[in-house]
TrEMBL record:
Stored PANTHER family: MUREIN HYDROLASE ACTIVATOR ENVC (PTHR21666:SF270), PEPTIDASE-RELATED (PTHR21666)
Start-end of Gly residues biased regions: 301-325
Assigned keywords, A-Z: Membrane, Transmembrane, Transmembrane helix
Matches recorded under Gene3D superfamilies: 6.10.250.3150, Glucose Permease (Domain IIA)
Region (Disordered): 284-330
Domain M23ase beta-sheet core per the UniProt entry, residue ranges: 345-441
Name of the protein described by the UniProt record: M23 family metallopeptidase
Gene source species: Microbacterium aurugineum
Residue ranges crossing the lipid bilayer per the database entry: 39-65
InterPro entries: Cell_wall_metabolism_enzyme, Dup_hybrid_motif, M23ase_b-sheet_dom
Compositionally skewed regions (Basic and acidic residues) per UniProt: 284-296
Length: 452
C-alpha cells in the first residue's frame, strides 16, 4: 500500500467514526492533530513532538514508509536478487513498525501519568485553598463575636458609671457600708479586666483571620496555576495517545500482510503468493466477525441493574451506568492490591455493573479527552457547558467508543466498563467538575433527579 492510498484510507476512517478534528482543532493543540482512528501515517505529528517525549529523530524515516503490494512480492519472487532486496526491505519495515509502536506507546504512558499527577495535584490545591479560607472565615467570625462582646461590656460600664448622676447613684449609701463599696469597685475592676481579655481575643482573631486570608489567596493562585498545568498535560496526553493509536492502526493495517509477504518470499515450496494473500483476507474477516460479536455482547450487557444506566432525570441528565454504588464520594480507607493502594479521598462515585457494561454520557456535550489517564486508566471527559463537565474512568482496554472533539448526546454509549488503572474490579468511576474543580457527584446528580 503506498502513502497516497494510506492517506485516503485514513481520511475515510476518520470521517466514518466522526472523530476527525475540525479545522480549528487542527490549528490548536501544538498543530498536532492526529485522530484516534485516523491516518496510518504520522506525517502530521512532527519530529519535534516526538522529541518532546524522548523519541529520537532516527525513527522518522520509518513513519513515512511505503509498503509493498502483493504484485511487488510476485515480481520479486521471480528474481533472486530482487527477492533478497525485498526481504531486507520488508524485514526493515516490520522492525520499524514494532519500534514505532513501542516508542509512541511509551510516550503515551509517560504523558498519561503526568496528566494524572497534575490533575491530582490540582485537586489537592483546591482542598488546601478551601481549608485555609474556611479557617480564615472562622477566625473572622470569632473576631466579630469578641468585638461585639467587648462593646456590650463597655456599654454596661458606661451605664453604671458614665456620668455624675450615675456615679452618685452608684456610690449612694456606700459611706456607711465600706464592704459594699469595695465589692462594687471590685466588680467594676473585674468587668474591666474581662473586657480587656475579650478585646485582646478580638484583636488576635482578627490578625489570625487576616493571615489565613492572605495564605488562602496564595493557595488560590497556586490552585489556578496548577489547573492550567493540568489542562496542558491533558492536551499533551491526548496528543501522545493519538500518536500511539495511529501507530497501532498502522501496524494493524500492515504487519500481518507484510509477515505473509515475507513468508511467501522465503517459501521454497510450490505454494503461490495468491494462497498467502487469501490467508490474510480470511484472518481479517475472522477478526471483523470477532469484533462484531464483542460489540453485540457489550450492548446486551448494558441494561444494568440496581439502577439502570441511562435512566433520565431533569435537564437532560441521565444515570451514567447501571449497577449499585460500590463506593461513594469523600474520605475513605485506602484499598491496597498488587497495583498499589487507592487514594484516601475519593473524588467520584463508583458504579459496578459488570465488565463490559455500557457507560452513558451523563448529559449532552463535547468530548475533550478520550485516552489513558494514569491511575484512572482509560478515561473520558465531556464538557457540558456552563462550566460543568463529567469524567468516566477505568474503561476497559479498547472500550472507549468516542473521540476528542466529538459531540455526544445525553444517554449515548461512550464507553464500556473495565478495570484499567488503579482499580480493584470492573466498575465506572464517575466524577463531576464545576469549572474544572471536583464536586460531590452524588449530590449533584440527586439535585437533578438522578440517583447514583
Amino acid at each position: 500500500m503506498n502513502e497516497r492510498r494510506v492517506s485516503a484510507a485514513a481520511t475515510e476512517a476518520a470521517e466514518e467514526c466522526g472523530c476527525a478534528p475540525t479545522p480549528a482543532e487542527r490549528d490548536s493543540f501544538w498543530k498536532l492533530s492526529v485522530t484516534r482512528r485516523g491516518a496510518f501515517g504520522l506525517g502530521a505529528l512532527g519530529v519535534a513532538a516526538f522529541a518532546a517525549f524522548g523519541i529520537g529523530s532516527g525513527v522518522s524515516a520509518a513513519y513515512a514508509a511505503s509498503y509493498p503490494s502483493w504484485d511487488d512480492v510476485q515480481r520479486a519472487k521471480n528474481n533472486e536478487a530482487a527477492k533478497a532486496a525485498e526481504i531486507t526491505r520488508i524485514e526493515g519495515l516490520i522492525q520499524s513498525l514494532t519500534q514505532k509502536v513501542a516508542e509512541t506507546q511509551a510516550a503515551a504512558d509517560t504523558a498519561s501519568d503526568e496528566f494524572y499527577a497534575a490533575q491530582q495535584e490540582y485537586f489537592a490545591a483546591i482542598t488546601e485553598a478551601e481549608s485555609l479560607q474556611a479557617q480564615a472565615d472562622e477566625q473572622s467570625a470569632m473576631a466579630e463575636t469578641s468585638a461585639r462582646r467587648a462593646g456590650q461590656v463597655a456599654a454596661q460600664l458606661y451605664r453604671n458609671g458614665g456620668d455624675d448622676s450615675a456615679l452618685q447613684l452608684f456610690f449612694s449609701g456606700s459611706a456607711d457600708n465600706a464592704d459594699e463599696l469595695l465589692s462594687r469597685l471590685g466588680t467594676m475592676d473585674k468587668l474591666l479586666e474581662y473586657n480587656r481579655s475579650v478585646y485582646d481575643d478580638a484583636i488576635s482573631a482578627r490578625n489570625t483571620a487576616q493571615s489565613l486570608t492572605d495564605q488562602a489567596k496564595v493557595a488560590r493562585d497556586e490552585r489556578d496555576r496548577l489547573q492550567q498545568v493540568a489542562e496542558q498535560k491533558m492536551i499533551a496526553a491526548q496528543e501522545a495517545a493519538d500518536a500511539a493509536q495511529a501507530a497501532l492502526d498502522e501496524q494493524a493495517a500492515n504487519l500481518e500482510t507484510m509477515q505473509a509477504q515475507l513468508a511467501a518470499l522465503k517459501d521454497t515450496t510450490t505454494q503461490t503468493v495468491a494462497g498467502y494473500q487469501a490467508g490474510v483476507a480470511a484472518r481479517e474477516a475472522e477478526e471483523r466477525a470477532r469484533r462484531e460479536r464483542e460489540a453485540a455482547e457489550a450492548a446486551a450487557n448494558g441494561g444494568g441493574n440496581g439502577g439502570g444506566g441511562g435512566s433520565a432525570g431533569s435537564g437532560g441528565w441521565v444515570r451514567p451506568h447501571g449497577g449499585g454504588r460500590s463506593s461513594s464520594y469523600g474520605p475513605r480507607t485506602p484499598i491496597c492490591g498488587s497495583q498499589g493502594c487507592s487514594s484516601s479521598y475519593h473524588y467520584g462515585a463508583d458504579l459496578a455493573n459488570g465488565c463490559g457494561a455500557a457507560i452513558y454520557a451523563a448529559n449532552s456535550g463535547t468530548v475533550d479527552y478520550a485516552a489513558a489517564n494514569g491511575n484512572y486508566g482509560n478515561y473520558v471527559r465531556i464538557q457540558h457547558g456552563g462550566g460543568v463537565s463529567t469524567g468516566y474512568a477505568h474503561i476497559k482496554p479498547g472500550g472507549i467508543a468516542v473521540g476528542r472533539g466529538q459531540w455526544v448526546n445525553s444517554g449515548q454509549v461512550i464507553a464500556y466498563a473495565g478495570d484499567t488503572g488503579r482499580s480493584f474490579g470492573c466498575h465506572l468511576h464517575f466524577e463531576v467538575y464545576i469549572n474544572g474543580g471536583y464536586t460531590n457527584p452524588v449530590r449533584f446528580m440527586e439535585d437533578r433527579g438522578v440517583y447514583i
